[in-house]
Amino acid sequence: MQTTLMHVILTSLFFLHTCVICGSASKWLAIFNMQALGISTIKSPDNCEELPGLVNKQIQICKRNLEVMDSVSLGANLAIMECQTQFQNRRWNCSTVDGSVFGQVLDNGTREAAFVNAISAAGVAHAVTRGCSSGELEKCGCDRTVGGNSADGFVWAGCSDNVAYGVQFSQTFVDAMERKTRATLERRLMNLHNNEAGRRTIEDNMRMECKCHGVSGSCEMKTCWKSMPTFGDIGQVLKEKFDGATEVQSLKIGSRQQLVPRNADFKPHTSSDLVYLVPSPDFCEEDLKGSLGTHGRRCNKTSKAIDGCELMCCGRGFNTHIEEVIERCSCKFHWCCYVKCRNCHRTVEVHTCK
Ligand SMILES: *[C@@H]1O[C@H](CO)[C@@H](O)[C@H](O)[C@H]1NC(C)=O
Ligand SMILES: *[C@@H]1O[C@H](CO)[C@@H](O)[C@H](O)[C@H]1NC(C)=O
Ligand SMILES: *[C@@H]1O[C@H](CO)[C@@H](O)[C@H](O)[C@H]1NC(C)=O
């Protein structure tokens, strides 16, 4: 126990001191942990200076948009939680190391880095847009460009999500980081591309929600508004893009560097696909670069996929133990009105990697 704790502390110190070109997302994402820094909400411009990992331009944006910063923090939180949900059954499971986000795992331009960039840019856009719709933010509100009668016989009414505002804010705030790093041009292009792909995922999946009005639910009049997908849906779409991400390299085309597929036989990526520069490490063993390894991870004995013991444990084998779970069972409804259950004990086999 003590050695693990020591290790975490060492790892995070190492991280703080050597992370100069770190996956840029991993730096400002530390905002999610504002509470841990003793900042519950951004009240004064001074708070902007206390936030870790921001570049100068972001500090200026923060000072001019104090009320939006809580949404940014919320967006960073959304992004991290969704990343952990989408990756819970993979070797790299998006764990945060002692308050710092993801360690150096994102230093290199891997698929994982691509995903984190996309989901965090989307997280900020989503949370800011929500802030606009809910009336919490003074600078923005619902989308006023949506209105009037539609050709399909309904009326645009209600609060359409102002996704343009959220996306614009995310572009200014999140992308500011990329113009101020020591990373290579190639890496900056990759990050900017994936940030944009994350935001497009929201725009491409906007949906229409409607409500019927009329005598006892008849739909004599229908009002509709445009609404963002849930953040869980965005996470799922981005996870699919992660699986289908394109390996690219930068080439000078005309006077500009551009990202093109490394394998010329593959069809070119679109602006909403994820791209990466280098293959991922196997994430099998713990190292000082922030990979925690898969020793002790739970695995599925019958699955052939990445959550299966064979792949998850990197061929090292696994241990099996029996765990007792207590569940509510034989529930009976009693008149009136409560439900009474018994506690049942059930044993399950749990497999963990050697
Ligand atoms: C990044 O790639 C370099 C070169 O392949 C490698 O030496 C280094 O360990 C990698 N860093 C991380 C954090 O995986
Ligand atoms: C993620 O992996 C780490 C290290 O393998 C493990 O300690 C942690 O419990 C895992 N997190 C989840 C949510 O499974
Ligand atoms: C394990 O994997 C199998 C096959 O993919 C699946 O049917 C089963 O639900 C999984 N079990 C658990 C506990 O996730």
Automatic annotation (TrEMBL):
Molecular function terms, GO-annotated: cytokine activity; frizzled binding
One Pfam family matching this protein: wnt
GO CC entries: extracellular space
Main location: secreted
Keyword Glycoprotein on entry: yes
One GO term (biological process): canonical Wnt signaling pathway
Protein localization: Secreted, Extracellular space, Extracellular matrix
Keywords on record: Developmental protein, Disulfide bond, Extracellular matrix, Glycoprotein, Lipoprotein, Secreted, Signal, Wnt signaling pathway
Annotated signal peptide: 1-25
UniProt record similarity statement: Belongs to the Wnt family.
Function of the molecule: Ligand for members of the frizzled family of seven transmembrane receptors.
Name of the protein: Protein Wnt
Naturally occurring in which organism (per UniProt): Strongylocentrotus purpuratus (Purple sea urchin)
